[in-house]
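Entry 14. Ran structure prediction on the chain below.
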Amino acid sequence: MKRQAIAAWGALPALLFVGLSHARAESISWSYSWTVNPTAVTSNDGSLGKVTFLPSAGGPIIGSLDSGDGVLAATLEATAPAAGTAVFTNRGYDLAMHLTDNASNASTALTFSGALSGGLGGNDALTNSFQGLTSKSVTLGANQYTVTVGLFVPPLPEVSGRLGANVTVTASGKSVPPPVASVPEPSALLLGWGGASLAGAWACWCRSRTRRESLQSA
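Output, structure tokens:
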């Protein structure tokens, strides 16, 4: 029981640090903007059809946006031929998120690569595939940002589509957590108690011996 109590008290500072880190993550302020290169992806022939990217920007935002539609990266506008189908085969583009940690004013860009395939026109069936890493993390100031792309709603000639991402914000751990209180093991406590007891006994014996010698000499 004593060992469990000691362990519980020793873990208390670490638990408090975790709680404070979670609370701090919920108050982190950040801003963003997106860029796309190229700004329009054309069909295989180069002119029959195209998808235009309209990047978004926003902020300040508090905490994570990692549920539902997350963060809008770009609105997609489709242009289809008057007749026939514009064919897309792995038509590539680069999508970059420019992040700013508002507390430190530190910023960076995380770039993802994607490709469009399918058709526009008689057969509207565009698909998107991200190539390489779809999740990247970076530390800005005292906070860590993880950006994960994946949301894709295909555009139609009369209906806009969109690209989106989730952003998770956490305390980076750069701030050093408070040290766990140093609690001696029970064995160390016993050794210390034993040493103190022996020292006390020796002092008592010495006093008693001195007293006897004084009486004898008297």
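The chain is about 25% helix and 45% strand. Will compare against last week's run tomorrow.
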